[in-house]
């Protein structure tokens, strides 16, 4: 597997990301955004993309690469979209995508559908907490949980501060 970071304006992986997103929508009913909304959000923000395949023939020629997971993250650390190919769940791909986003941001935030218990559990495992409940957040009227992970006061940054402060 390979990781690629798509800065704003880079739509190299947009079609592959859209395919995974649409499969999740069809099979699970999450990530229901339209192409217009999704593609313009993707193009204006940073994409983190996990790919499999490529150079399958071993002859140095790229080809046959497929997207297996993606995160699209706004400049303020808000996770707009996160999805992993259903056949590739439980391998740590979702975790890697969130941790890659965390390299750019001390504070990460997101909304999850009220019914999406799996996503809430997933984010909780990664240190997110539900900060508030938002009634009728989604177009279909479903509520959302606004979740936050703020690493600024974490043990890691306190240790880093202490070490830096020793000089
Ligand atoms: C949420 C999602 C991105 C997780 O991806 P993933 O690659 O399977 O996640 P990981 O393999 O990194 O799992 C990390 C941990 O979260 C837990 N977890 C993941 N999905 C879970 C679920 N549905 N229910 C309970 N726990 C879950 C895993 O058990 C794992 O815990 P462990 O380390 O103790 O085993 C994926 O399920 C998905 O694409 N869901 C549909 C879209 C969605 O809900 N997106 C997020 C909201 S927009």
How is this structure best summarized?
With 167 residues, the chain is of the alpha+beta class. The chain has two domains: 93 residues; 62 residues, Aminopeptidase. It contains five helices and seven strands, in the order βααβββαβαββα.
Which of globular, elongated, flat, extended, rod-shaped describes the shape? Answer: globular
In spatial order, strands of the major sheet run 1-2-3-4-5-7-6
Total DSSP E strands:
7
Mean pLDDT: 91
Low-confidence stretches: none
Number of domains: 2
The main sheet comes to: 7 strands, mixed
Which assembly state applies to the chains in this document? single chain
What is the percentage of strand-forming residues?
25-35%
Radius of gyration: 17 Å
Number of helices: 5
End-to-end C-alpha gap:
41 Å
Q: What is the chain-wise order of helices and strands?
A: EHHEEEHEHEEH
Describe this structure in words.
The protein is α+β, with helices and mostly antiparallel strands. Helix content is 33%, strand content 28%. The chain folds into two domains: 1-93; 106-167, 3-Layer(aba) Sandwich (Aminopeptidase). It contains five helices and seven strands. A seven-stranded mixed sheet has the order 1-2-3-4-5-7-6, with helices on both faces. β4 (78-84), α3 (93-102) and β5 (107-113) form a beta-alpha-beta unit. Coenzyme A (COA) binds next to α1, β4, α3 and α4.
